[in-house]
Hints:
Blueprint: E1 3-6, H1 9-12, H2 16-29, H3 38-44, H4 50-61, H5 67-83, H6 93-102, E2 106-110, H7 115-124, E3 134-136, H8 149-158, E4 165-169, H9 172-180, E5 184-187, E6 202-203, H10 208-213
Parallel strand pairs: 1-2, 1-4, 2-3, 4-5, 5-6
Amino acid sequence: MKALFLGSIGTLSDTSELQREAFNAAFREHGLDWHWDRDAYRDMLRVAGGRRRIEAQAEAEGVEVDATAVHATKSRLFQEMLDAGRAEARPGIRELIETARDDGMLLGLVTTTSKGNVNALLGGLDLSPDSFDVVVTRDNVTEPKPDPECYAHAAGALGAETKACIAIEDNADGVRAALAAGTTCYAWPNENTTDHDFSGATMAGRDICRTIFGARAA
Length: 218
């Protein structure tokens, strides 16, 4: 194993409910009579990309919506929540990062969310971007997950082959992206993605560090 890739900000912190709250607040700001309850949002998380979810909602409602503007408002509200300290690191993730470093592995954060969201979350968790040897955001790719471009970009930046890397993902599109890149993938669902189809990935237990590193994590 040459590199360990954390495949979304959701692998660092389970932010799905904060994001749902931000979406609903953004809808109100834009005068939209929409409310995504938890069950509906769980289904939406099967497809990556918040703007795409807004566009799908508008199409289903038969209305025209500036999805880019609504999504920008959602991102602002979400980042304000992170700045206010409302996110917590997922149990075991700090240990995982430390163990990977001790094991001589390169580390990457490979997401197709915005750089603003990434920086806000890292700041909220008191993690520096320097914790990672490569950080991939929406700015670095032309296609979101499940396209494997983000993984090819991350591996290339580290001078590694994708097949020599391990990815950890918390959602189905992320798993598909990693597997399409030829990267071994561990699925580590959050509370809203436990029923996703993680075919092809190894399911991780609650102790993600022990899942990856076994006795070395003890």
